Amino acid sequence: MALILLGLLAASALAVPVRADRILGTVSVEDPTTHLRGIDVTAGSTFSVNVWTRDVPEPGLVDFHFKIVWNSKLIDFVSRDVHDHGFGVLAEVIGSDSYEMELASPFPHSPLGGDASWVTLTFRCLGEGSSEIIIPYSHGYYGDYGHELEFTSKNAMINQEFASSSTGTVVTMAPWLVAFGLVVSVAVVAVALVSRKKPRS
Fold it and tell me: Is 0.85 surpassed by the pTM of this model?
């Protein structure tokens, strides 16, 4: 009986995937130019972010699936540009407050290691405030689908401000200029009247 129990335990241990087979990488949302995750924008303007995978070990990624979400009250989706690196797009879902995509390398697989940008997303800033573009889900396979790839997510923070305008300063000062002009005009008229009434010697 004891030998049977030991045999079952050994079989179950072999059936459990080894944790060390799960390789870690990073998926991040970044500014396309500066690669920073803190992005300053003005209300009414458009801006873009890239979704990157980083630190993917060799032999590389063969399947990548991710989803990102944002606050649609502050950010409006405009467009997207996929960078597939020769992968095929298996699924793509675009919502008012989310974007989801899965890509895979066609057979025979050509794994992609290191760092790679997968999509550029363009948004319009709707108002003032701060909001995140968040990665709630990401998953991948590397090699020949033999191992799962786990990602550490790095979200982007969008700092949204109203644009300062020189026109507003002019409008603010305009009443003062008008008042000053009226005072000068009254003074000129008063001097003219006094000069006219002054008797000649």
Answer: no
